[in-house]
Structure formats: structure tokens, C-alpha cells
Amino acid sequence: MSLFRWLARAAPSHTGGVTTDESRYEAVRSRDARFDGVFFLGVRTTGIYCRPSCPAVTPKRENVRFYPTAAAAQGAGFRACRRCRPDAVPGSAEWNVRADLVGRAMRMISDGVVDREGVAGLAARLGYSPRQVQRQLTAELGAGPVALARAQRAHTARVLLQTTGLPVTEIAFAAGFASVRQFNDTVREVYARTPSALRAASVRGGHGPAGRPEARAGTPREGGPVSGVTLRLAYRGDYAAGQVFDFLERRAVPGVEEVLGRPGGRTYRRTLDLPYGTGVAEVDERPARGGGWLACRLHLGDLRDLTTAVQRIRRLFDLDADPFAVTEHLSRYEALAPLLERTRGLRSPGAADAHELAARAVLGQQVTVGAARTLTGRLVQAYGKPLAAPSGALTHLFPEPGTLAEAPLGELGMPESRRRTLRAVAAALADGTVVLDPGADRDATERALLALPGIGPWTAGYTRMRALGDPDVFLPGDVGVRRGLALAGADPAHADHWRPWRSYALHHLWHATTQAGPQRAPRAA
Length: 525
Known about the structure:
disordered N terminus; Endonuclease III, domain 1; DNA-3-methyladenine glycosylase activity; 23 helices; 45% helix; DNA Methylphosphotriester Repair Domain; single chain; alpha+beta; alkylated DNA binding
């Protein structure tokens, strides 16, 4: 057995591998970064909470308390460690795996739903009463939706304080706080510093984890968007950036997306349609010095969209995945183990715009990746909303569902049956028949899609995998998957054994076909 496979088998099984306080303490003793974001530890003698990999001296076991979320640690009276920045860790992959109320709620809170619509809005989207949501989250996570959103607002505020020159008052509201007083109180409680002191410390040499500079400052332009907020988007474990950028580059839609540079040093750019305005995101392929994060720049028309924009880019690049758990499980299968060893850290890219992805899935039916890209580019030019000012080759936002529901679509040069399907999907998205919110019920969404004319298992499954970030989708009818199965010598009947990580197995099979050379390109939008 190779060393890679031995390590994969020996590793604890993601969240399930630290089920007791003793096993959590062992992860802390070994400074195991695999569990950053999975749990947090509060040190009773210092009043500080940290990530498991904090480089500080390991506290004694009797002085440590464990919490499932940063919000729970804050609620217990602990303040964030200035050395390990526990608020900047990747999110727990558990929320993407779980389809229950808690998992769905966590995905929606991350997207900023509580900030925009309050707890009542969150509960309505989930189909529960506010009291039920509060009780369930508090029982399992040690914090309710308001506390979880508050912890996220505090992190957003810190990023803006340390990466922009915006006045403190503007940052308060941009981060989602209802008042400057609430903002000041929260920052002091979470970071044990005033906002001004937090900014001053950054100017003197503010450092993130392991002493590395966390970001460079951007400057607000009068009467226009911020010139750019530079962020580090953290991930855990290996990250196959080259393969992820290849996947996105092959599918980049002209006008909405572009990839600049050459392999190894590319930059992915795309437009964003956000709740308060528009934006442009840029993500670099080249691993940042020290690793563990991707460099990202966000150009936003309204800084209140920062949290939502970050989460959408994280989902697109699958940055909250747990590659240790994926490798441990899938490498047990003889046909898959060589694929995982060959391409470590392969991710399952999601979507920056779920409605866009659903339309692209329809356009990708029964055609190659290149043909789908051409069709989608025509759609954008005909029905997309132009940016106020082009940004390089980025000129448009993707068309809104309401626009496509009424569009003739004659410019696309595809069968009328496909045009009817695209209009039907757009109408269902516009009227809420199909819901693609981050916290949508995935099974219900798939059923709703399959009920529409012209939508089959491939389109519904592909949409579920990418638009809803489901890590457990398999597409047995896909041309590329069938070829990948043949190349790997894998029996499609065994795919059920690959749960709950079938989406990752699927991407390894797709990647195997690109490595084997061209035949017919995999069918995917």
C-alpha cells in the first residue's frame, strides 16, 4: 500500500473522527489543521478561543472547553485569539453534507440571509417557525441564528477594518450591523479591541495565521465602488488548483467569465449579481506563499454584499470541502484509489449564481462543453444586463430568470423543445416553483426540476451538484462518467458505496478522461 493511501486510512474521519472531548484535545495537541473550523477550543485561564492548529503553547486539558462554532465560544464569553485568527478558518464541510434543518440553516446564514431578512425570513425559507429554528440551532450548535450571524458580521467587520480605508461608521453598516453602537460593542467583545485599535494594529503590521500578512488595503472611490478588497480564502488540506481552474476555464462564458494567464499562474474573473448591487471577483490560481488559501479580490458596488460575495466564491471553488474525509473513504475502493493518489485535493466546483447554473445545465444537454459555452455566450449577449462599465472582457451579468422566461431565444440556434425547456426552468425559478437557495431542500428541488418539461436526471443531478453544492451526486448517464468508469475499471453498480462523496468520485472520473486524451468531450455545462 502506498504512503498516500496509508495516511488516508490512518487519518481521523473528518467530523466523525473527533466525537469526544479527549479526541478533540488530541487534535489540539498535534495542532491538526484538518479540524480548523470543525470545532473551536476556549481556554478558561486566558478567556481566549482558538482554532485547533493554533501555534500557541497547548493549554492544559482541564482548562480547555470545546465548542462547535465560533459563535458558541463567543457566547460563552471567550474572545478571538489574535495569533491564530479563529474567525478566518474554512467552514465546516459538515454543513454541505447535511440536508437537515441545521445544515440548511447554516448554509443560509453564511449567505447573509439573517442579515438581510432576519430570523423570521430565515425560518420562512426553511419552512419552520422562528422558535423551532432557534431551539434546534441552540441545542446542537450552542448558538442561535442571531448569534451565528453576529459572529459572521464581526469577521466581516475585521476584514473591512484591516483591508480598506473606509471610515469606521461606513464599515459598521457594510458589515450588517444595525447601529454603530452595536458594531463597537461586538468588536470589543469578540476581539478585545476597539475598531480603531484593531485597524491600527493592522497598519502596524497586522498579521493573520502564522504571522503572514492577511490582506492589502483597498481604497474607496468617491461615488463609486471600492477599488478592491483583497482577501485570503482559506481551505484545508491539498487543493488541486490547476484542475479546478481547468474545469472553470473550459466552461468560462464570454462576457460573464474570463481566465487570464497561463496554467500555474492564471486568474479567474467573473461578474456577480448580488443583493445590493453588482461586483467583479478575481481569484488567483498560483498558491499563495505558505499555502492554505487562495488570493481573491472583490470589486463591489456596495460593501454590504461582501459576506454574500465571499460565500459565493467559496462555494464556486469548493473551499469548505474536507479532502481528508473524501480521500479516506474513496481510497478504500480499488478502482478509485489510483485516481485520488494521482490528483490530490480535487474539488467539486459549485456555482457563484445558482440560477445561472440551472440555465447553463439546460444549455449543456446533449452537447459538448465547447458547444454549451458558445450557446451560453450568445444568451448573455442577447439577454444579459450590461455592466455600467466593462471590466476587461467582463461586460454583462447573466440574464435574470424573469427575462429568460419571456424570451424568444431564437438567437441560440437550438431546437424549439430546448428553448421551451429553458423558458420553463426560468419561469419556475422566477415564481419560486424551483428553489435554489443555499439552504434549499435538495430532494424537493430535484423533484421540482424533474417535473418540468425537458428536464431529465442528468440536468437535475448536475444542477443539484453544482447549484446546491451537494457532495453526493452521481451522473451514470454522462458520457464522460461512462468513459471514466471504463478507464478506471470501475463498476457503476458500486457507485452507491461511494456515498456521501459521489460528486468527488465523479470529478475524478471526469478528470481521468481529460488525462487519457480526447475522444468525445464530457457532457457538462
